Amino acid sequence: MSKITSIEGRLLYNSRGSKTIEIDIISDNKFLGRVCAPSGASVGKYEAVSFPNGNPEESLRILKEYSQKFIGLEASDLKSIHDTLRSLDDSSNYSNIGGALAFSVTIASMESASRALNQPLYQTLSSRSSFTCPFPLGNILGGGAHAGPGTPDIQEILICAIGSKTIREAVETNLSVHKELRNVLEKEDPNFTNGRGDEGGWAPKLNNEKALEVSAIAIENLGFTLGKEVSLGVDFASSTQWDEKKQKYLYERAGFENSPDKQIEFAAKIIEKYKLVYAEDAVHEEAFEDMAELTKKFPKTMVTGDDLTVTNKNILKKAIESKSCNASILKVNQAGSLYDALEFAEVANKNNIKLITSHRSGESVDSHIAHIGLATQSKMLKVGIVGGERVAKLNELLRLSEHGLICGMAEI
Ligand code: PGA
Ligand code: ZN
Question: Are residues 248 and 299 in the same domain?
Answer without folding.
Answer: yes
